[in-house]
User: Fold these one by one.
Assistant:
Number 1:
Amino acid sequence: MTNIKNQIFSSYQKNSDLYDEIYDSEGKIKPVYKKLFDIYGGHSIQDYVNLNSKAKSSFFNQGITFQVYGEDNVQEKIFPFDLFPRIIDSDEWEIIEKGSIQRSKALNLFLWDIYHEKNILRENIVPLDLITSSANYLDQMNGVNPPGGIYNHISGIDIIKHKDGKYYVLEDNIRCPSGVSYVICNRTALKRALFGVFNHYKTHTVTNYAENLLDLLESVKPKGVDVPNCVVITPGMFNSAFYEHSYLAKTMGVELVEGRDLFVENDFVYMKTIKGPEKVDVIYRRIDDIFLDPLEFRPDSALGVPGLFAAYKKGNVTLANAPGTGVADDKAVYTYMPEIIKYYLGEEPILNNVHTYHCSRPSELEYVLENIKDLVIKPVDEAGGYGISIGDRLTQKEIEQVRKQIKEHPRKYVAQPIMSLSVHPTYIDKSESFEQRHVDLRTFTILGKDKEFVLKGGLTRVALEKGNLIVNSSQGGGSKDTWVLKKQ
Amino acid sequence: MLARVANNLFWMGRYIERSEHIARYMNVNYFSSLDAPNQVSQNRQFVLRSMLFMVGAPEQDPNKILKEEDVLFKIGLDPNFEFSILNNVKQARENANSARDLISTELYEAINKFYHFVLKYPKEIFVKSGLYDFTINVSEMSAILRGKIRGTLLHDSIYAIILMGVNIERATQVTRMINTKYNDALLTQGNHDIMFSKSAEWATLLKCAESYDMMRRFYKKTPTSISTLEFLILNPNCPRSVMNALNQVYKNVKILNPEKRYNKNSTAFLIGRVRAEYQYKYIEEIEQDIKSFIENILKSLDDISNKINEEFFNY
Amino acid sequence: MSKEYTVTYIAENTYENWVDNAFWQFLIIPEENETQDLVSIDFSNSIHAINQFSINGYGFNTIRLHSRKKFKQISFEATFKLLKSFQEPTHLLSSPTMEDYYDLASSIDFKVDFEKYLRATRLTSIPHSKADLFQFDPNLSIYENLMSLNNWVYIYIHYTTGVTDVHTTLDEIIEKRRGVCQDFTHLFCAISKQNGIPARYVSGYLNHESGFFGDSQMHAWAETYIPTLGWIGFDPTNNILANKNHIKVCHGKDYDDCSPLKGVIYTQGSNKTSHSVTVVGQQKAVQQ
């Protein structure tokens, strides 16, 4: 251990089996983290405890909270925020940015294709039943031309760094990815608490997201509209991402509406204002497909707007993201991403996919059955982490059981190598010290008509439980400010 | 602005104003009674009943002995009592939540802090020793909110709607206080031969409306029924008077609907009509029949609120 | 030859409590196609809400209403006049053999193009245990097979109203062997799809003047895709081919895509709905 002369990092324990973001391969602190390490080291633990609790109460007072429903009361909680930022240098960022845009573009072309000519299915590069059996595939979207030709206007890509030091994509989120408001809040909170550290780094801003989002929405306006009226639609204030919805509406300077504020007349959409109906042209929707229009999808949806889909199909209003986009962020479709990128763009994927073994293919099935111990087994059609088996945590008996299940229904399962997420020093309340915790990164990509933008920053999520690989906020995850450095 | 959100803002204004008045009413009455000039006014049961009357939950059973801690808890922090300060602040915040994208971060943060202050206030401390601290803080935080509303929002239709809510509620609450204190003055008079018009309850009433000092300055005399009512109802320069509130509501409705033509169905017309009635009223007319005045003004305020709802929130 | 029809559709809804806000969408307008010419549409409702003509997600014409005044009772009445032309289906005898058909249907293009009508849906899934209810005969032509399926469904299910509703799935229908036109149609479609022949659910009106089965409501039948011939209509409820008496409104994967009336009603309490349909035909010789 080199260079640790101060209290705050003195008890930091480095597990050499894990990839620690702030150390290089020789165990030295990376140059890019050096200054930060020294500055933080200059603080005493007590300073740090104070700063940390101030940052927390700032989040709380700003109402940047989500609600947890208990047995007899509702509690408000903040997303835990860690004051030690993650740094990504400009070279590494370039790969992430290019890779994110590449994926978004490929997914967009893929969506156009499967809702039009379906060439990738006809050539059997992606299996037909994989698409049509997906609950997110909407028959009604066949032949619809979304304004500007864009389906996935906003994508969130979850990226991890593996032991080998390379980035891998875990998931593409192209329905209603959330989290971007936390990127901005984290930055604000860090600035308030430790503004001094910013003097030593040239960090890209993250506050330009809203203007780019508004630009995007205006770029996909319906035909014949001069200055489009854009709105954000939310399920309402009890939604866990309501803060984000209101934040985005506010910073874009557009109305935040609920389904009941809108109505459709003669296939145009209007909102109910104090001065009567006002036409709406572009809707950034933060409600799921099936709730959009009770006449077309779930009839009991109280969140949607009757007649909205007909207005959309007629081209009188734009929905971002387009309905039916979710079919492309399916776990099973993910496994075909390298092929999808090659097919539409003729390029090699810039960001790695985690290799996936399809148990439906006999040769791969054999490998999987032999190597369950080193693999994660996932059912193709379950969402939300259900039914996942992590090989190295199974007993011999459980392995046998999984093997039996796979043999019975090989089509139902895919397998991936166990990925180890990189770790990053994170302040832990309980021990009042810094410890290694697993992190991932969600990037935010905007794709418009002749427009592409990746927010230079991102949401670094951190699993606060020791050894935990699941960073989701619902599982007690926190987040870190993420700095993308400018080119020197 | 969305009609639904306008409705939220209107009610946000009303709930902020309402919590403030209830808090100050509790504070002033409780502490004035401790050394009140007559026994009835000093009687704790009398004060507690007055508070319940004011918030709209009068105790019907004249023989019931009220427990101080229960009454204070009910009005201050009871989550199950619709009109408690806690629920008023909660409602103010929920309404602010759904209009969050329209109001300033500063205003939202202040409302949010207010809510957490009330929510976290320890119940035991409040009912035993915290009444002063709690109610003063509620009044002060409401004053901060008013400052944030004026100082951080654009003075456009959003501002106008909030102020309409604030002022309609203010007129309503001041009228409710007049009603309660009128009732109290009658009670003290009945038992102890104190002249109704010189009752100490009038001074308490002025203090509840934060208008005692200015009233003394204006009249340079001990408050009587007639001077107090004149000041609190008709004086357009008293910031808490019904007249002043009506003027504010009128001014703000013109921002929302500036049309000048004769339109007897508009909100502005109705407000103007009510305003004109009180602008040229003799206080003696009111004093002769306070009961009818209270019924009439509450009905007019209700009509105005309904009309606003119909014209602006229903689109 | 063509025939002129007048179709009258009446729906009445009564609600226990006041309704403040409501939307309805009617999928009842006869389709304009090779054999159907719409002459006139007349639509009215008892609360004087404005009729909005629109197109639903599957491309069929709809009428939408939005009421903002409160009411407890509402009635709708639609009258359509149309000309239905027809010819004797002699060309059907030239349908391909099963063998030829399977050659064609095994191509990926065919699967991609007809996937939507080959996919088993909630209402057209046959339970595994009943997978061999009806077998296609490899020695018959595809048309002959479908005709015998039509006949088999007609015999298998006894036309009975009030036993099933629009949510009843096939496991129950197969068990009870009772149902109405949509149940006949779902069973027909399911078996056709199971045998690799694209099938779709058709919603429309039936001229009852010749004494066909079906009550005075909307009727349902099936269309299957036969290569070289196109989409051919089978009415298993009456064991006939769809003909001059069948006035088509729309088609879809199953009833859910074709529901004639959808409503979003903001009220509490119960409600009563009644529908009635009358079809009156008048034979006409149209000069060619």
Number 2:
Amino acid sequence: MKVLRLELYRAFHSRTFLISLLIGLSICILDLVTFCIRFGGSGSKVLLQAWIGTDYQFAYNEMFYVLLPVLACLPYGGSLYTDMKSGYDRNICIKTSRIKYAFAKSAAVFISAFASVSLPLGLNMFIASGLFPANTPERLEFMSIRVLDRNLFAVTNSEHPVLYCLIFIIIDGLFAGVIALTSLSISKAVRSHFTAVVTPMVFVVILSMILLGDEFGNWSVMDMLNPRQYVTTIWYQMLTVFLVILGINALVIWITSRKRAVI
Amino acid sequence: MKKVIPVAIICLLIFWISRIFSINQYPPACTVYNIGDTVDCGDLELHFAGSDLDDPDVFKERFGIEYDNDFGEYKVIWICIDVTSRSDADIEWDDVFSFLECGFESQVWGSVMSPEIDMQINRLNSESLAPGATQSIWFAAPVNKVCFKDSSWEKIDAYQYYYVLSLSPVKTEVRLEA
């Protein structure tokens, strides 16, 4: 589809995608550098302690996961707003249907958000893998995250730490994609590009303050995406939240795409 | 110049991937003993006499103690180690306990021994461990249901548990029978 190719090209060649990637990479590299300076010479540290997703010792993990909605929405989330403001969408919709344009835009937003979150996490893991072995951290040292049976992927964390990291990189990327779709669905209601990009983060932060988790589960997006798993998340909660966010955004995007007249 | 950068990136990738392989070549060593084994540790000889994963009532009856857990449903895992002194001088109990105590773990759970339980279940025969003397020492820890999924808790006895004696320089642990 031509319009999909065009939207993907615009998404991955935009300045905002580069800025988002640089912010994410900076946080990840700073965490790794800080970890190496603090513990690098000890020889007893492992990948699961050094990777930003499971490194609880510095603030960079929290910083990354609080900023995750912004990192997701910044690359291309506000593009629908700018297209509507400039009239670009009307030009496109002369040559293609509005639904196809909305689909292409949504796909580009999703994929660029996935990339802007997963690439820094993946690169951080790749670099850390060359510095620290991928052994299972000793539980009784209490110097690593404690993933118990109640948490997600507990056996994978114990037996295949690299796979555990990869699973959460993919999960974080997928959630980044659906969170970025929120920017699209509110584009008609906001008055600035900045608002379109930042509003999903506000939703995530407020909901995380309301939906505090306990040992029986957790419905907060911010907490369930963090591989540290300091609150218990049950698998169906993660799946439900993902499908709800995706469903609501898809519905709103579809309705607003149908209703707006081209001429 | 256009060809140099991609080639340099590829070389760097190859170097880094080979580095990843090389640092993961030697997994950490671990010495595992079984219940019934006897280990010579220089001044101390350890015999791993027994272990079990008890229901709370069974545990309280076995040791004649009162213990309640604040975290809901639980079981108690314990190990008994017979310690014999091979030294010519008395060994202080602090030294003996610091040599032995670490914790329990399984694939998806871990806990240090419970000082509260250990204080109640251990009866020391003397002020210190005299040369040639033997003392049975028990270590125990609660296994709380909140750490496990409901489906896992139903087959909690099927997990393999270990008592970890030391983490460095080489990890040493005892495979428990529960």
